[in-house]
Amino acid sequence: MMHDVVNRAREAQREWALVPVRKRAAIARRFSQLVYRNQPEILDSIQKETRKNRLSAFEEAVDAAQLAHYYGRRGPGHLRSARRRGAIPLLTRAIEHQRPVGVVGVITPWNYPFTLPASDVIPALIAGNAVVLLPDAATPATADIVERLLREAGLPVGVLTVIHGGGRVHGDALVANADYIMFTGSTTTGRSVAEKCATRLIGFSGELGGKNPMIILGDADVAAAARAAARSCFSNSGQLCVSIERIYVVNELHDRFLSEFAEHVRNMKLGAGMDWDIDMGPLVSSAQFDRVTTQVADAVKRGATVVAGGSARPDIAPTFFEPTILTDVTDDMELGAGETFGPVVSVYRVADDAEAIRRANESEYGLNVSLWSRRSAAIAPHIRSGTITVNEGFSASWASHGAPMGGMKTSGMGRRHGREGILKYTESQTVATQRLHGIAPVGPQSNRDFARMLNRLLAIWNKIS
Fold first, then answer.
1. pLDDT score recorded for residue 183
2. How far is 240 from 117, CA to CA, in rounded Å?
3. Residues forming the active site
4. 140, burial (CB in 10 Å: exposed 0-12, middle 13-18, buried 19+)
5. Nearest-CA neighbor of 347 among 211, 246, 231?
6. What is the pLDDT averaged over residues 402-420?
7. Sign of CA dihedral 460, 462, 464, 465
8. Domains assigned to the chain
9. What is the pLDDT of residue 1?
10. Tens-place pLDDT, residues 142-175
11. DSSP letter for each residue of 247-275
């Protein structure tokens, strides 16, 4: 089945690649406008499939629209052919072109069923590829809206194919047939997908797990950090790769921060449904609920202290777990070192700025760091993370669509957004044209004389270029 799907996509791609890039980009701009016009329907679908609160659904839809607008405007420039330095001055002309890889396989998770497909599909399409999209089995309807709106925007039939059933059912077959794979999910699964891609010598990009820290240094604005922490830890009920799951606070600010942070969390409006005033909704599934419940119960049993939350709320919804702040969490607890992917954060007291930075780096993950300091320029080089969001949790870096976003260490490889986020779906092709004479001896010239002449010529060129 997948072999036939990819072959049909490959046939459509040949025609699509001949469409001028500015016409391909115009479809992305029209898609952006359609997202705004159809926003209520999109938000309803996102909430129905994920149970997230409406503001989180809104943020997802707006992010997709803005990303489409960015690539609709900037994509052609990123793909433009460029002149490069040739072998011999004045005689060699070298041009770099960007060619589509062919059929891109995109595998997306349930937590952001609208913006993640759009973020990966749109730049791949503008680059001239066809796409086969495998959305998570839990969120089929929202992915179908992405496809429908792209069709309404002018995307030809066959260029984007959505296959339902999810990566567990169709992932291996897609990896075995596509020309490039973009995967979002766990580090464990990402490793497996990357290995399969390596065997076939096809490209792979993955945004994988995270155990993202917030670092609050001695010169931080404590009140602002406490407010932002409530958003950064519990947006989308903590079910996002870039959310904050651990917070390191220098000793002199710890008590004030923890008190203000806990107060903000206790004042959050909890609920289920379409009410815009709800600050946090339920978890997506019973499996996710069980994961969070088990990790918190284990941590408390082994000595962690609950500062806020800590309990299930079946009175709100069957899968609702309160936004939870813990202290006294240790690395030997599953919650301490492993990704929770839920509304739980651990707060740690550290002696000074140096310890905060060291502890933040002591993780296999490196996706996002929230840094609270006026000295970010000096501190950033010492942090091993793909993104560092200063005086904010994660939104500023994620929504900066002109800048690359992705992980270091086991948080992934490759980048979304910016120039890197579209060029990864291309192959660089160099066309070098030699004029007047080849790079070889002239007429009866001996090899030695040719070498001497070339040395002199290049020495002069290197001085002036």
1. 98
2. 15
3. 207, 241
4. middle
5. 246
6. 97
7. positive
8. 2-208+415-427 (3.40.605.10), 212-400 (3.40.309.10), 435-464 (no CATH)
9. 87
10. 999 999 999 999 999 999 999 999 999 999 999 9
11. EEEEHHHHHHHHHHHHHHHHTPPB--SS-
